[in-house]
Structure formats: structure tokens, C-alpha cells
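Anyone able to model this chain together with guanine?
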Amino acid sequence: MVRYILVGDNQASKIYVNYKEKACKKVGIKTINHNLPENTEFSTLAELIEKLNRDSQVDGILLQLPLPSHLDEDKLLEMIDPDKDVDGFHPLNVGKLILGKETFVSATPLGIMNLLKAHDIKFKGKEAVVVGRSNIVGKPIAALLTAHDATVTICHSKTIELEKQIARAQILIVAVGKRGVVKPQWIPSGCVVVDVGTHRLDSGKVVGDLDFEEVSRKAAWITPVPGGIGPMTIASLLQNTVKAALNH
Ligand code: GUN
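re: yes, here you go
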């Protein structure tokens, strides 16, 4: 059984939790949601997390981010029992990932690796360029690619001459959270391209950080948005939840 904690009215978070819940239902994983109001106090959340940590019926705990600004995300994530941390956000689990030890890997980077492996993409000695250095995607995917023997470059908002860095990519992970930062003409031909972004245009159309049509002319592989890394993330979260249950 997994418990989802959602605080406040963030619409995107509500949609994500809804997806996760539905996916659990489909495969027979029990879920209980804790939907808490925007003005929830730190102590209330801390008590809930501690209660769930102690409950032997609970295999996994997921605190949906972002939290309202008055709540200290880092402190709360640290309170989650690392053995129930299906998100892989606890510092102990992040540390284990860096050390190359068995741990919970956060769902998006795990989903990316699962997808690339399923398509028999080779990592050894490859030039991998990661654009974005978030704790949720950029940093952990860079660690995983390094552990799989790729040569990894991490780029971010302060990177000078991003185009030059991207020119060497054989594997390119774009997790910027902004559309159009990486230009289609920069993509080296034959590159394996993973687009982690999700944006809803005014027209209602959902798109990634990249221009899919343009980039697909040059890339050997490219993940679509929607239907690419999003569903892989959900599947990988389920994988982590099953792993947590088997560990208990
Ligand atoms: N907010 C955006 N992505 C995630 C995620 O993977 N897990 C959690 N808990 N919150 C998120």
C-alpha cells in the first residue's frame, strides 16, 4: 500500500497524483490519499509522516511537490523512512545513488533509463549531455549515466555556449522546464534525444521542452510529449512501490 500526501490546490500536482492513483488501481496496488489544505502546519505534516513511517501496512510514502512556500520541503522529505521513500528523494537514497549502491532511484530518471535500456541504447563510452540540474531529474540522471559508463556533461542556466556543449552529444537529456532553450538546429544528427519537459500551450496542446517535429528530422531517437517520459515515470514509480513492498 502506498500513501500519497498532497498539500494545497496546485492543479498540476492534483493531476499527477490522480494519474499515479489510477495507475496503482490498474495494477492492484492499494492507495490512500491525504489531501490537506493549503494552510496545513508543518507539525501536522510531520506527525502524519511519522505515523505512516510506523504503520507496517504502509509500504510507500510519497509527498507530492511542490509544497506551499511556508513548509520546509527538505525537512519533511528527510522525515520519510528511507525504506518507504518510493520517490527516491531522501538524502540517504540520493547519496546511495551517487555511490552506485542499490537504492530507490527517483521515478523520472529511472523511467528514462528503463526506456533507453528497453531500446537497447548503449551507454559505455558515449557522450551524454544533460541540460538541467534539478534534484529530481538532472542530477540523478547524470549519476545513472555515469554509473553506466557514459561520459556526462551537465549543462544549466549559467552554461556558456550551450550549443557547443550539445554539439558533442550522442545521448541528450533535456530537462529544462522551459520550451525552446535547446534549439532544433543544435541537435547533432544521429543523437538519442530524451525530452523531459511538459507544457500546455494556450491551444490546449501538450508539448515538451523541444520542437518534436524539427528535432525528429535530425535525431536517431526522440521521446514524444505526451506519451514519452511521463508514462515511463508513472511505470517506474509503480516499480519502486513494488520494490518497497517486497522489502517489507
Ligand atoms: N512533483 C513533480 N514531480 C514529482 C515527483 O516525481 N514526485 C513528487 N513527489 N513530486 C513531484
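The first helix runs from residue 11 to 27.
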